[in-house]
Amino acid sequence: MKLTSLVAAAAALLLGLAGCSSSGEEGGGANTDGTPKELRIAYQLIPNGDLIVKNQKWLEEALPDTKITWSKFDSGGDVNTAIIAGSVDIGLAGSSPVTRGLTAPLNIPYQVPWIFDVIGENEALVAKGAATVAELKGKKIATPFSSTSHYSLLAALQDAGLKESDVTLIDLEPQDIQAAWTRGDIDAAYVWTPVLGELEKDGKVLISSKDLAAKGKVTADLAVVRTEFADKYPNALKTWLQQQDRAVKLVRSDHAAAAAAIGQELNLDPAEAGRQLDQLVLLDGAEQKGAEYLGTPDAPGKLADNLFSAAEFLKSQNQIDAVPELSVFQKGLATKALSDAFSG
User: Fold this and answer.
1) CA-CA-CA-CA torsion sign (328, 329, 332, 335)
2) Residue 200 pLDDT exceeds 60
3) Which of 117, 198, 204, 241 could form a disulfide with 48 if both were Cys (CB 3.0 to 4.6 A apart)?
4) Taking Cα atoms as reference points, which of 213, 180, 214, 208 lies closest to residue 193?
């Protein structure tokens, strides 16, 4: 989705929500103990700790007086639209959509408090009838626009010496990519699991996000929280962060239980869910406070530099109008919330 389309879609959604009794900005207000009456979460079907938290109902247990509303989204671009409209408090979006979100003209008032995962082999470019990326010249390639897969696809084409104009790019959500692949409407696709797993059955992986990360094009699935919500309900955000950390620790201490929980959410058997889980790099709270990742209030981590580099690349591909200052991305990291959650 182009930026102008995203802004227009967000405006339309906001108007549609204006008449709702429990809209947007506060999500129902606060309880007498200061916790929010409702916490609205945008999740995606990605095999990381977020699905464990959802499956095990840990937030519902930790915030018993708060209504936890989980809404499924298909891409980070859609999550950005919902955040703009004020219909979601916390959501999952890839590093490319977050880069766009923190950049004009969107300038979404949100911050990154958590890294769900560093993307590896769970996002890849799959093709039929091609052995290399260069052989895709003149072919139809589908990917969800404004996603991490879109960013990685552009990087893969550039690395292979192809321009965007050398191929036909088609904007499709993951489930639509699978349908188009089955019909034979597309020659290749850059997408993530679980759809990636279906395409791999009769397609060839040409390059993965793990391969691109080794070339300096790192992508990640990030949490975003509305700045207003984070400021008003810091304890709720702290609880949310601690449950995410708990999920990462479960993956490390009881991989089978973690895979079973994720499998239930993805409708996959535990073995396949475990395989897809292992394609990601998960970080606990202590690790995310390190210089390589989110960092601390005194020293924002290298994620800000990564987002800045992504913005430079997107500008070179005419995907955004201008590159913000590095400080924009540094301020976009909720390092204080992370430090408060894991200060022990």
Assistant:
1) negative
2) yes
3) 117
4) 208
CA distance 25 to 50: 23
Measured CA to CA, the distance from residue 62 to residue 172 in angstroms comes to: 37
What CA–CA distance (Å, rounded) separates 293 from 223?
13
pLDDT in tens, 11-34: 444 434 333 333 344 557 899 888
Question: What is the Rg, in whole angstroms, of the alpha carbon atoms belonging to the chain?
Answer: 19
Q: Name the pairing type of β-strands 90-94 and 38-43.
A: parallel
Asked whether 23 and 93 are in contact (CB, 8 A), the reply is no
Bridge partners (DSSP) of residue 222 are 93, 115
For the CA atoms of 229, 230, 233, 238, what is the dihedral angle to 10 degrees? 140
SS (H, E, C) the chain: CCHHHHHHHHHHHHHHHCCCCCCCCCCCCECCCCCECEEEEEECCCCCHHHHHHHHCHHHHHCCCCEEEEEECCCHHHHHHHHHHCCCCEEEEEHHHHHHHCCCCCCCCEEEEEEEEECCCCEEEEECCCCCHHHHCCCEEEECCCCHHHHHHHHHHHHCCCCHHHCEEEECCHHHHHHHHHHCCCCEEEEECCHHHHHCCCCEEEEEHHHHHHCCCCCEEEEEEEHHHHHHCHHHHHHHHHHHHHHHHHHHHCHHHHHHHHHHHHCCCHHHHHHHHCCCECCCHHHHCCCCCCECCCCECCHHHHHHHHHHHHHHCCCCCCCCCHHHHHHCECHHHHHHHCCC
pLDDT at 5 over 90: no
For each of the domains in the chain, give its residue range(s) and CATH number, in order of start: 3-118+219-341 (3.40.190.10), 123-214 (3.40.190.10)
